[in-house]
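hiii, so i know i said id send this last week but things got crazy w the move. better late than never?? heres the sequnce for the chain we talked about at the cafe, plus the structure i predicted for it. fair warning i was half asleep when i ran it
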Amino acid sequence: MKFTYDFLSLPVDEVNLISTVAKLDRDEMLYFWSEDAWQDFCRYGRQEGMIGLIKKNEEVVGFGLWHIIDERRSELLKIAVKTCYRGHEVALGFWLAAVLELKKLQVHSCVLEVDATNLRALAFYRKVGFTTLATRKSFYSNGRDAISLICEI
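okay and structure toks below
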């Protein structure tokens, strides 16, 4: 399967694109943002950031959203791939492309939180070099814990 990756600096003012990503977030993520939250963050947010798109034949089949914390650090806020494309190394190719983009921005590390019960995601993050920073008790609205991870880029 052939995928392409596009990376856009925030803010992004393409309402249809943001709606597409918001729908994918809602369809594929347990903890999803409302479309209004996506629009606010991507179009009007004051944060420096980057959104990455995974495309197959111009269809958006995955995404990643990064907040650039400062000149050296980033936070991966969200990453998702459509269920039908999981297990095909799509996220790995996307992550490697994202690392190159982050390096262009002089970012040296990436942090994230992941649901402690999401073993598939934890395995992926460890595979690409993330290590555990801490466990955040009752981090999510449903009371689940999160694992905070970091990766040196």
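btw The longest helix spans residues 90-104. thought thatd interest u
miss u guys!!
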